[in-house]
Amino acid sequence: MAGAPTTSTAPVPVLEVDGLSIEYQTEQGVLKAVRDVSLVVNCHESFGIVGESGSGKSTLAMGAIRYLASNGRVTSGSVRLNGVELVGMSRRRLRSLWGSSIGVVYQSPLSSLNPSIQIGKQLAEVARLHLNMDRGAAMERAGEMLSKVTMPDPEAVIRRYPHQLSGGMLQRCVIAMALMTDPALLILDEPTTALDVTTQAVVLDLVADLKREFDSAIVYITHDLGVVTKICDRVGVMYAGEFAEQATLRDLFSHPLHPYTLDLLGCVPHFERSPQKRSLVTIPGSIPRLDELPHGCIFSPRCGFVEDACRAARPPLVDVDGRGHFSACRRWNIVPTPAEYRCETTEALTVAEEAPGQAASLVEIDNIETHFKGPTSGFWPGRRQHALIRAVDGVSLTVRRGQTLGVVGESGSGKTTIARAIIGLTPATSGEIRLADHTLEPATAKRQRNVLREIQMVFQNPDASLNPTRAVGDAISRPLVLLRGMGRNEADEKAKELLRAVSLPISYFERLPNELSGGEKQRVAIARAFAADPQLILCDEPISSLDVSVQGSLMNLLMQLQIEQRTSYVFISHDLSAVQHLSDTIAVVYVGRVMEVGDAIAVLTPPFHPYTEALVSAVPVADPDVKQNPIRLGGTVPSAMNVPTGCRFHPRCPRYLGDICRDQEPPWRHGEGAHRIYCHIPLEELTQLQADTLVLASEGTGG
Amino acid sequence: MLRFATRRVSFVLLTVFLSSVIIFSATQILPGDVAGVVLGRFASEEAKATLRHELGLDRPLVVQYGSWLGGFVQGDWGNSLSAKTEVRPLVFERLRASAVLAGVAFLFYVPTGILLGLIAALRRNTWVDQTISVGSLAFIGLPEFVSAVILISIFSIQLGWLPSQSTIDPGTGFVEAFPKLILPAITVALTSLAYIVRMTRSSTVDVLQTDYVRTANLKGLPPHRVLFTHVLRNSLLPTVTVVAIGVGWLLGGLIITESVFAYPGIGRLLLFAIQRRDLPLIQATALLIVLIYSFSNLIADVLYAVLNPRIRYT
């Protein structure tokens, strides 16, 4: 808590931003992207800037170091780095600071490294430029830095090209590059967003270690409230170009003093052990457009605590408790704690009549495999060898009526291929899928129309899955006409009803997809899926590309529709907190095979499969009081072309036993009910080993 | 890398083989009888038959093809029917002349094109960019015989700076011949130049917007070093392909341009051969052009692979 005045040594401010405003000149006129923003970051301190997309968090950070697009400019305010004013500084002097006093790490490590230059040269470039080192010394320094960021075999990595390394390794390279010159300020802009949870955990650990080791002030930009808790000392919440609140991490999470922060915290699903589910907090409306900012407090149109005075004048960001807790809310003293707020504003959802394991089964997936021919090797046409890609490799699962089966795993685990096999887009090459005791043809093309109707899908990217030239109403009524044989008028009526059901205005009927926001498009995709009145909807990462608050409202929508329609879901996600929130049963998959499956609570409490244990340890929980196990996975998910022998998880398993794991397929260990774990370690032993494993549950909000 | 190269070379050989079959068949379909053309309209049937026998034209086509290709590979390209000389020295002499013209054009348009493309990209959306872009678009649409005539009317007729005819006697030195090369070289170069400008501009604009260029800027590198170390290497990759394809355009352009300027190159030779139904000359010239075209594409592929680490060894 370096920011609090109670610390013994006086904190040394590294970055002081005071009243900074940034504008963009666009075709629509001038957009005031950041307005009168102030913050201070001290040495050895990390300041998290949290906000949804469009909140101006990246603009603030990039504007502070004076790196803006050509149409952007700082209009007022001051930025001091170690006391030196950056606003008004010449480009030449700025360049002497960039890369030496200021290091930057970006979201996508692969695209932020030059694809045609070796890693070592890219790192050495910084040392040669700012530390006046010769080629040899700079290369040596690059090697040292790579070992500091715990890169395995740095000498070899130096000669690699970016495409030859995994995402996690690349991000370590970028971090090493940013730290080459011991910068006073390190800016990390969503550095783990493009990475898998397990890799994210490793990178977050690394940043936390480096924070202690280097004399830097860190600005950490993220949309993920969970990630913030792992890294940051102080957090600022941004909304539409202004700070709503700034506080120490613990203060912000335990008693936020701005309604927007409160809402954001409520949008994120909590780990709960009770089968009783609650809806999530939703924020009505959407982020205001920068050219149509509301009068007074910019959050007032969406705020649950608003009163007339709020709309009169813009409230300043003030230190409301005199101890460094800043809020831009006039009514900060009536803001409740997150737990109270959740109880007041969310509702307990009707529990399914049957316990998860007992409901009648709808879909039986029996030992399916999806194998493809891989790339060829060998030169002569007749003698080429096809590698075999075992994308799905023996998966058996049950989806129960009116319930949700969650499927989690890292990218490359085969989650999506399982869904595509069920719907028949990528037919299973062996095994059987039965829908209500009726065996399905593997390929969509061969399925009967009435079977097609029963299974629908919602895809990850709503931009790509809605036809851009077809109006929203058309997209929804099409399955009604095709699959339910409705007439044009009847279909249009029904489509409007569906729009209402997904909380979109009827006026959207005539709109084209590009006039809608990402969340709205996904609502249309959900309405389209429900139009066929299916028994099963496959949701493939339907909320992953959306903002936190939009994710929350979509999860609410999915749950509410499920209760009303008794539809079953297969919910695929890499996000364990979303999966546990929505699912009745959970399957954990790894390289085309199920590692653990069972009722949600059973899967998320010990005994765990070691892979589940690692996922649970890595998931960033949006609660600083939750302590998690430091179990981390090394390496990367193996290719489905080259599946490891024995237990396919053995090369990365933190609980690796020895040869037996490498040589033999593990047995299924059966626990309570439908819970089963695919591991050589007996359940009792797993329970014992994991006895002190944190149980992911927060302060009994479930009831 | 070796496997990659072998693979590409075998594809090229296959292309050349297929082209040789096509060239051979096409020359068989050409209207007119060789013997008739050579001996004149009033030759007796008997004399024609004798000539056909001498030339081996009465043998089955497959045998004719085999002996032609075999001869070509061994360097025996046969005798020209109209010029009454050996084909090979004739073709090579003309090829040298064309190579000089193509070389001058190449040395002019590749650097100019890249430079103009870069300037347009770095000054994008300014009047400089718009002038270059619109200008290059106009040149793409302009056929050689039109641009040649325009150039001649401006530089030869109006200004009188350069000769409009480029007939060069054998044995003339390069320096002496150079003024005669300028107009045909520019004519040949214009289309390729325009393509290179456009390709360089668009790929450089793309690269300038990448994250790794942002990384390079935020390392504090001065702009020229960002450009030379980080931008050019990636943005010129697609240009390499365009340059190689441009060699094909160049060859096509030569036939027309050489005729307009009466330049004694391979293009004019081919035209001459076709007019005379001079089969051995047509076949040899056409196959030679195919060879040049294929190998310039091969070189582009290999060069691309060398410059781009991502597609190596595939």
Report on the structure:
The complex is a heterodimer of chains A (703) and B (314). With 703 residues, chain A is α/β, with parallel strands linked by helices. Chain A has four domains: 13-115 and 183-232, Rossmann fold (3-Layer(aba) Sandwich), CATH 3.40.50; 256-345, no CATH class; 350-435 and 535-703, 3-Layer(aba) Sandwich (Rossmann fold); 437-534, 3-Layer(aba) Sandwich (Rossmann fold), CATH 3.40.50. Helices cover 30% and strands 22% of the residues of chain A. Chain A is built from 23 helices and 24 strands. By secondary structure, chain B is an all-alpha fold. Chain B folds into two domains: 10-74, no CATH class; 88-311, Orthogonal Bundle (MetI-like fold), CATH 1.10.3720. Chain B is built from 13 helices and no strands. Chain B has helices spanning 2-29, 34-39, 45-55, 61-74, 87-122, 127-141, 144-158, 174-208, 211-218, 223-235, 237-261, 266-275, 279-307. In chain B, helix 8 (174-208) crosses helix 10 (223-235). The termini of chain B are close together. The relative contact order of chain B is 0.14.
